[in-house]
Amino acid sequence: MVFLRRACTVVLYTLLVLTPLIVFPRTSELFEFNKMLVVYGLAGVSISLLTTYWIVTKKIAIEKTLFTWSLLGLLVAFSLSALFSIDRHTSLYGYYGRFNGGLLSYTAFAVIHVALLTLLSLYEKKNEFIDKTIAVSVGVAAFVVLWGLPGTFGKDLSCWLFSAQKSLESLNNLCWTASFRPAERMFSTLGQPNWLGAYLAAHIFLWGYGWYRMITAKKAFSLYQQIFWWSSGAVIISGILLSRSRSALMAIIIVAVFSGGLLWLHYRASLMELFSKHKKSYLCLIGIFVCCVLLWKTGVASIDRLLRPDQSLFKNERVITQPASTETTPSSEIQGATESFVIRQIVWKGAWNLFLRYPILGSGLDTFGYGYFFTRPIEHNATSEWDYLYNRAHNEYLNLLATTGVVGVTAYGFVIVAYLLHVSSVLRSKKFSFDTRLRAGVLAASWGTILITQFFGFATSVSSVFFFLLPTLSYAAVHVSPRRGEVIGSTPRWLWVVPGSVTVLTGVFCLSYLLADMNYASATAHTSTGQSDIALQELKQALDIRYEHVYQDKYAYLLANMATGAAGSPDSKAKELASELFDESVTVHGASLKAAPMNLLYIRTGAKIYFLKAQALGDSEDLKMAEELVDKAASLAPTDPKNPYTKALFYGILMQTQKDQAKEYAKQAVDTVGKALQLKPDYRDALLLEGMALTVLGDTDGARKSYQTILDKVNPQDAEAAQHLEQLGNE
Questions:
Q1: What is the value of pTM for the model shown?
Q2: What is the pLDDT of residues 465-479, one digit of tens each?
Q3: 3-state class (DSSP) for residue 91
Q4: Helical residues (DSSP H) of 149-192, grouped into ranges
Q5: pLDDT in tens, 602-639
Q6: How far is CA 9 from the centre of its chain?
Q7: What's the confidence (pLDDT) of residue 613?
């Protein structure tokens, strides 16, 4: 059983260390995709270890707790939601680009919980092991902050790591796109500032537990251990402040006030005595906190204005090497941007309406990115993020309500209640020591921060790890009795095929998923640089390795674009090739639409494919199909101005290419684009198209009005609108 204990330790520590840290630049998504692959791999190893345990003990047994049963209920509820989903593939594997949130990910976390909870019974000194595990996790959290800290000064270590040269010149922030601004908000290896904030918020209480043990039993801690607990606290506090995550700060404050109030009510005298006995340590801790706040500020303007000096100490030394972005900076700080909370309220309204449309089982697990279009409030068009794709409701509970309905949210609620009942029973029981109850309370406090940050955001791979792992450690400490787990008799060799097969299949799954995504990412890059031939081959390789209707959609559209290019050649063979490519494009796209018939993005792709085919081959039936698909998209997403604009754009292109029917198409363009402008009066591209169509119709006054609206209400510096106005003035 020594092997199983060591293997269990490796799985647990790998989960704590590798999941927050892993980042890989050659995948389509640097952060979440790779972290989830680690989770899937460890879930497979956990199954192998658990089956090995059953084989050698000749008994199939798991630790049965209320939390475990609630997880089973959650999987059943989510399975039903996935079965009746608007997109079963997405509900199974998760939204492509987020990856965490599908049925497979929840199953993986549940498997890891069951396996670790069962195997931790093999540890005779479980509490010592759990305390060591907490220390390891705190150390990793501190390392995550230290890794991201140079990026605050324009010297991001990830950029240096991604660079092929590994020189001092590559130590900058230039590897990040405009969507990432580490010099303004730290995100380190987590991907987004709020994700980092949520991760560190959960660790502040774990760190507090270790720090408390250190100051109350200094003799049991070496000098290096004392340095570790003091320094890691300062680093984690700094990371929370530099993430500028208001949800993380709010979570810490709420949990601290609640848990502090309970401690004061029940242990007032003990707390006073403790503070008196360790006054210097507490004053030193307060000093560290004050220094961190003065050094980095809080990111909350109303608080920072009260601090002196007016700017943070190192502000003048920071180097901002990215252009402005609206994604990682609070929108209130960007000129013309809508306040983030205003946008969230609109998205929450849409999520609630989606729930009302699918009240029992929701639209399908993790399908919010597709379902939100159905109930998207029209007021979203008036925000600065009107054309953003929202794949989450930015409130985990509303997200679950919209995608899994009453059944899914009820099951999720049972999971929360099950753990809270466990914590309550431990805290109220006198059979457990003070240290045991303190540990249970601290684990619950850390878990509580996750519940709060998820209210203003959503579950990520790392937050999900701790959502399931913290209860596992808490249950293991008090409800799992140590077992010797001795080997009973000999074991038939054929039984070892089971854990071996699980390990191999898991490895194949993870490797194929990785290789397919790397091909997809490379194809996306080659498409952006105009290398369509290479991109097409890579997308085909991705589809050969693994089925994803996301790959099919990109592959079909790329085929259509290549067919359009071939159709423009005077060579008769090129025209035959164009016809074959269009046929293949339509077939592939039909397969993707069959897999996800209510996917608005795929419907739009289909409309574009048929329009390109109609232009290239001159078949009026293809144009009719393009119009029908756009109309279908408009019926699914009635408040999205892109749908009528896309149809108007088709007419606008025909207006320019079919000179003999230019006025007819111009009239259709004006009529259709007007529907887009009813939904969004300041739609720049729609106004521009309207002006061009009105010019063709001879309505120069109307055209001037459209162009002037762009300059007055959208962008006074719009060069294209100004040029059109100048041309009208010269006529």
A1: 0.92
A2: 999 999 999 999 887
A3: helix
A4: 157-162
A5: 999 999 999 999 999 888 899 999 999 999 999 999 99
A6: 28
A7: 94
* C-beta separation of 300 from 246 below 8 A: yes
Residue among 227, 116, 111 nearest 502 (CA): 111
pLDDT at 434 (0 to 100): 86
pLDDT level of residue 491 (50, 70, 90 thresholds)? low
Give me the residue label for tokens 């199974």: 92
10 Å CB burial of residue 608 (0-12, 13-18, 19+) is buried
User: Token digits for 431?
Assistant: 């059979």
Q: How many residues does the chain have?
A: 731
Provide CB contacts within 8 A for 274, sequence distance 6+: 216
Say whether the peptide bond before residue 638 is cis (omega within 30 degrees of 0).
no
What local confidence, expressed as pLDDT, does residue 386 receive?
93
Q: How far is CA 536 from the centre of its chain?
A: 28
Q: How far apart are CA 282 and CA 317, in angstroms?
A: 32
- pLDDT score of 482: 58
Cα–Cα distances (Å) from 648 to 311, 564, 654, 670, 693, in that order, read: 50, 20, 10, 7, 10
CA 408 to chain centre: 20
Query: What would the mean pLDDT of 341-345 be, rounded to a whole number?
Result: 91
List C-alpha distances in Å: 73 to 69, 76, 118, 368, 568: 6, 5, 19, 22, 58
- List helix spans (H) across 329-460: 340-357, 368-371, 396-428, 434-455
- Report phi then psi at 182, rounded to 5: -60, -20
Nearest to 603 by CA among 615, 612, 595, 593: 593
Confidence of residue 98 (pLDDT cuts 50, 70, 90): confident
- What is the Cα Rg of the chain in Å? 29
Which range has the worst mean pLDDT, 290-294, 435-439, 576-580, 725-729? Answer: 725-729
Nearest of 4, 81, 7, 70 to residue 399 by alpha carbon = 81
Sort residue 508 into left (φ over 0), alpha (ψ -120 to 50) or beta.
alpha
- Please check whether residue 688 is in contact with residue 652, taking contact to mean a CB–CB distance below 8 angstroms: no
d(CA 16, CA 140): 8
Residues 6+ apart with CB under 8 A from 132: none
d(CA 170, CA 176): 12
With b meaning 16 or more CB within 10 Å and e meaning fewer, what string describes 551-561? Answer: bbbbbbbbbbb
CA distances from 386 to 382, 390, 454, 683 (A): 7, 10, 23, 10
Report which DSSP code applies to 339: P
